[in-house]
């Protein structure tokens, strides 16, 4: 019997990697806007964000080149994110948002490939599918931030919202993806409208494909049990 504590921790992470990723994503998106009105938790948010990026690197890295690609995409984001505590990174914010968006897209691709290769419904499959949905929304958050830096005035903000604030654009991203359409933040420029429309369509398509995939796997499992 192997009592190596390090191997146990690694084994625990491997078994629960999608659940851990899902909890950190919820923590970033829900607790940050709720607690930011009470205390300054920028440091805590950066820690959670760093864990999301580091966890993503190893979550579905089944081949040697995958963590290398993920690391190259995550490194500029992590360096610039922590450097902003000490210096004004200025236009390098564009670089950070670009690499963050590409990293999220890379994670979504790896998670989806892993998900669609499964032939049994497990809790990790469900957690992974949910994590993809949140990563997709977060990817668009960074995309909107990048656009608003490159093309100021792309979004119309009410007086109660702060332009270029992560919470504001993250809120707009998920309101768009879930097609709630509150209309408090609205896309003004043509690129912003095109991005919002694309996100709304792909978000709904993903939910439809997700349900179809889970139903298909469930039917296959039932038929296999009968046989």
Task: Please summarize what this structure is.
75% of the residues lie in helices and 2% in strands. By secondary structure, the chain is mostly helical.
- Named CATH topology: Helix Hairpins
Strand content: under 5%
What does the largest sheet look like?
Answer: 2 strands, antiparallel
- Radius of gyration computed on alpha carbons: 19 Å
User: Could you report the average pLDDT, rounded to the nearest whole number?
Assistant: 83
Task: Write down the overall geometry.
Answer: globular
CATH class annotation: Mainly Alpha
Query: How many β-strand stretches?
Result: 2
Helix content: over 70%
- The secondary-structure class comes to mainly alpha
Helix tally equals 7
CATH architecture: Orthogonal Bundle
What pattern of helices and strands is seen along the backbone? HHHHHEHEH
Major sheet: arrangement of strands: 1-2
Stretches where pLDDT is under 50 for at least 5 consecutive residues are none
Terminus-to-terminus distance = 36 Å
Counted up, domains total 1
How would you characterize this protein structure?
With 227 residues, the protein is mostly helical. Helix content is 75%, strand content 2%. It contains seven helices and two strands. Helix 1 packs across helix 5 and helix 4 runs antiparallel to helix 5. The radius of gyration is 19 Å and the shape is globular. The model has no long low-confidence stretch (mean pLDDT 83).
């Amino acid at each position: 019997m192997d009592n190596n504590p390090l191997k146990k921790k690694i084994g625990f992470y491997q078994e629960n990697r999608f659940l851990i990723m899902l909890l950190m994503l919820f923590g970033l998106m829900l607790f940050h806007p709720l607690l930011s009105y009470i205390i300054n938790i920028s440091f805590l948010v950066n820690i959670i964000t760093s864990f999301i990026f580091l966890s993503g690197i190893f979550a579905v890295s089944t081949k040697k080149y995958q963590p290398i690609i993920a690391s190259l995409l995550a490194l500029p984001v992590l360096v610039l994110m922590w450097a902003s505590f000490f210096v004004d990174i200025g236009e390098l914010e564009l670089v950070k948002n670009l690499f963050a968006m590409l990293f999220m897209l890379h994670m979504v691709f790896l998670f989806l490939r892993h998900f669609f290769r499964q032939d049994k419904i497990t809790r990790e499959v469900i957690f992974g599918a949910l994590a993809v949905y949140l990563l997709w929304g977060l990817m668009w958050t960074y995309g909107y931030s990048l656009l608003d830096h490159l093309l100021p005035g792309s979004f119309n903000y009410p007086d109660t919202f702060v332009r270029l604030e992560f919470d504001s654009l993250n809120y707009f991203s998920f309101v768009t993806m879930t097609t709630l359409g509150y209309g408090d933040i609205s896309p003004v420029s043509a690129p912003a409208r095109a991005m919002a429309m694309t996100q709304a369509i792909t978000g709904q398509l993903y939910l439809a494909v997700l349900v179809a995939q889970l139903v298909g796997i469930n039917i296959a499992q039932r038929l296999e049990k009968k046989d």
